[in-house]
Amino acid sequence: IGGDGSHFDVELFNQVEGVSEPELNLSIGVFRIISDEILPDGEKLHSGAAVEVHWKMDDNGLIACEIVVPDVGVRFSARNYYVPEAGHRNYDGEEGALLAQEQLANARSALMATKGAVQASDQPTISGLERRLDLQNQLLSNSDEAEARRAAAEESRYIQQELARLRESPENRRNVMLRDLADLEDQFATFVDEFGSDVTERAQTLGRSAREAIGREDWERARQIIGQLGAVFSDALYGHPAFIVHTFHDIASARHWALDKTLHDRHVAQGQAAVEQNDIDGVRSAIRAMLNNRMPNDSGPKNVTLLASLLR
Asked: In sequence order, what are the residues at sequence separation of 6 or more whose Cβ sits closer than 8 angstroms to the Cβ of residue 12?
């Protein structure tokens, strides 16, 4: 809404070959689009409106971009929207240690999930990645240096990139997709008693369609349908007050992912007050604010990731 100071970020990644997931690539900054700069006071950009970001890098490595919002007839190219420091991570102190530990834990989770889906011929590669991960955990436990933590976090990303390549290989793709689908359906089953019959029927239809696409080896279509199933699940959870409150506490406790720690604390206080007043919309607002203050390319519990897809 123009005049309220809100913004959204378009993240920029340095993509490596064979790794399609943005969150597994190196975040090198964001384009930050502030509502006051593209909208008149009081004008609202509705959900789903197209926002075109055209960017280029010159020979000196400087990035320039043009923002186009067709729905409101906006086109800007003179301002500098690039915010490279938004992707910076501080590994100093206790919160820096938590940041590195969480990234290694995420790599461990990805490794265990991949290990159960790839062929036996890939198990030596999995074992090698497991040894690399064990080494980083050992080095992290023996060092309080910020650079050691940063190195461990970077290694965790490299390990996850290798795992992504394994999952995307032709011989593993079918089993990986079937497992991803089954995991999502298991999550859905956990909450199914809380959802209406229309949501359950929609989920079941999407599950069947995904399996049919996998059977046809239409991988892109299968990926799209699995994404739609995840969206149905997260949308249903979004209306569940207990889930919203639980997610608020998850994000509130992850102060180490906040860009501005003081701002995070303020949002936590506002959200806690909303929880105590049973103001679920207020809790959602606090979650949205905390996510907007969160480092790009972050990670966390599955329910946080699901809700982020709705609120970011």
From this structure: 27, 28, 29, 30, 31, 55, 63, 82
CA atoms of 35 and 102, how far apart (whole Å):
33
Kind of pairing between the strands at 74-76 and 63-69: antiparallel
Kindly state the tokens that stand for 177. Answer: 């997709």
pLDDT, one tens digit per residue, over 10-55 is 777 777 777 777 777 776 667 777 777 767 777 777 777 787 878 7
Residue 221 pLDDT class (50, 70, 90 cuts) = very high
Contact by Cβ (8 Å): 68, 74: yes
Q: Per residue, what are the HEC states of 49-86? A: CCCEEEEEECCCCCEEEEEEEHHHCEEECCCCCEEHHH
Q: How far apart are CA 265 and CA 253, in angstroms?
A: 10
Burial of 118-154, coded b for 16+ CB within 10 Å and e otherwise, reads beeebeeebeebbebbeebbeebeeeeebebbbbbbe
DSSP type of residue 295: P
Q: Read off the pLDDT of residues 76-94 as tens digits, 9 standing for 90 and up.
A: 765 555 565 555 677 888 8
Instruction: Tell me the C-alpha distance between 176 and 29, whole Å.
Output: 31
What sections of the chain are H helices per DSSP?
A: 35-38, 93-115, 123-141, 146-168, 173-191, 197-215, 219-238, 241-253, 261-276, 280-292, 302-311
Cα–Cα dist 8/47, whole Å: 12
Q: What value, to the nearest 5°, has the Cα angle with vertex 239 and ends 45 and 243?
A: 115
